[in-house]
Amino acid sequence: MLLSLYDEIILKISEFMTDREKIYLSMTSKRMDQLKYKIRYVELVSVLDIRSLPYFDNFECVHAHMIISLDKIPKHVKYVHIVTTETNIPRFVTHLTFAFNFDKPINNCIPSSVTHLFFGAYFNQSVDDCIPNSVTHLGFGWDFDKPINQCLPTSITHLTFGRNFNQPIDKCIPALVTHLTFGFFFNKSIKDCIPASVTHLEFGFHFDQPIDGCIPQSIVKLTFGKNFNQLINNFIPQSVKKIILHKCYDQNISQGLAAKIKRI
């Protein structure tokens, strides 16, 4: 009974340690060495680095640069990160990154286990009816520039567009998005386009559209690129705590806004 309670206490303490600290702890005595088979390791690690360890099944977060089978991942895994150029994605993958040169259709390709989805630089295919409702984090690469109307699931909270994206976004941004980033070439109207859930909004180099009535009260951080030179006085809600403006911006700035602005 005493040893069982002792084990439970150590296991609880280990939850507040890094994986490296857990390994060091297991090296302090024979008793501790036995506990390393019960301790769970939660930091991201390559499957190749742990495949020969006798406590392989205790790792909860792994990544691989290839498609792997179910019997090649730890039994207690919770998060599986994969970087691939293939479309036969296993149904246990949670974090999916398509490689730099990937540019294939993705219809019926992405399993509902995926929560984080990122596309490589070359990807420029339609995503209509392709992204499952499980995805919360979505990032597009440099080349993506396809229409997104009714393409993005309502589950998305973090949305990043790449360098070339310059499509209309009216009624396109999901209502739960909190972090929204546009790339280098985006320069479309944002009137009635930014949902009230967004707290962090970033525009790229070419954006230079009027923002009167466009910035929701939820925004706390607002970033503009080099080309932006529209009026901002009276158009920035009180919720905004920080505004990033390029040093080229030359419109008048009220004293109240000046305290929130950082020039780059």
Automatic annotation (TrEMBL):
Pfam families listed in its UniProt record: FNIP
Gene3D superfamilies: Ribonuclease Inhibitor
PANTHER family the record matches: FNIP REPEAT-CONTAINING PROTEIN (PTHR32134), FNIP REPEAT-CONTAINING PROTEIN-RELATED (PTHR32134:SF173)
Protein name as annotated: F-box domain-containing protein
Species assigned in the record: viral metagenome
